[in-house]
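Most newcomers find our protein records easier to grasp once they have seen one. To make this concrete, we reproduce a full record directly below:

===
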Amino acid sequence: MQFHCISFQKGLYWVARRHLKMCSKCSSRIRRDDMEFMIWATRSIHAFSVVVWLGGLLYMGGVLYPVFRHERMTVSPLYVQIERRFMGFVWMSIWTTAITGILLMLFSPKFKFGSYHAQWDILLLVKQIIFAAMVIVAISSGKIVRKMESILAMTPNSSLENRISFHHDRILVRRRLNIVFGLVALLISIRMVMS
């Protein structure tokens, strides 16, 4: 695999020098061991970001929400603030998952752009569609959280409960949908590794 010489900033130069073996014609070749390490590191980061995303969804839906519901705090400003903070972790995981997923796809010898004849290619396409659906659901959830924040800022406490609980129920539906999508994507990933 060939790469053209890249001029690196001073801080990154030593990292590049470590991983790239310079050729005489101003091109660089990544050694096989270094490439295997890069794939392993990318796979690890990808798995970690998926665990953070799905683990966070499961924690919010399976642990935190039942506690808040039992304490009748699902319409409190604290719960809305927690939802807002959680969206930051969701977006961090989405971007990390997307970037590492693209890298893993491009590094894979099984990947052929635009070809959906083999089982692995079809599974990859289905997984990408599920990922896109999960991102759309996350965007929708973020809009609902912002709506809940604006309701908290403008609504008197007397009518707060009904308006917040309506939006809260919408977030729960989306969270459950994303959990199902995530578990299906994990099962597809397992099948892709086996094929």
